[in-house]
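Sequence in, structure out.
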Amino acid sequence: MSAQSDPGAALLARHGETRRLYLRDYRVMANIGIHDFEKAGPQALLVNVDLWVAAHAGPLADDIANVLDYDFIRKAVSTLVASQHFNLQETLVHAILEVCMAREEVLVARVSSEKTDVYPDCAAVGYEATRRRA
């Protein structure tokens, strides 16, 4: 995997240690899409989030206060999906990126969404975006 496809590699070289949290295949029912059949009701959407975060300055000490609690990712996705109809997966993905990057400790965020029931001849159609802190 190249440094370009793995944001963690460049961060590791720069920071000496990073940590990665992720949310895999979080299935939500979303009001999303531009086609009439998509506007008829919610459809299944899989959301994936990868966050590279700065390492805590001290020992972890088995204390939740010393890490980024990943519950916020799941709650943010759930809240955003329930908040409105999204015409585009791109709009939802970028809204999730905004929430993730608002956390100071997040260095890089990668978010994807996949519609799993749009076409009968493929597993999913989706969109992915990655953002890094400047």
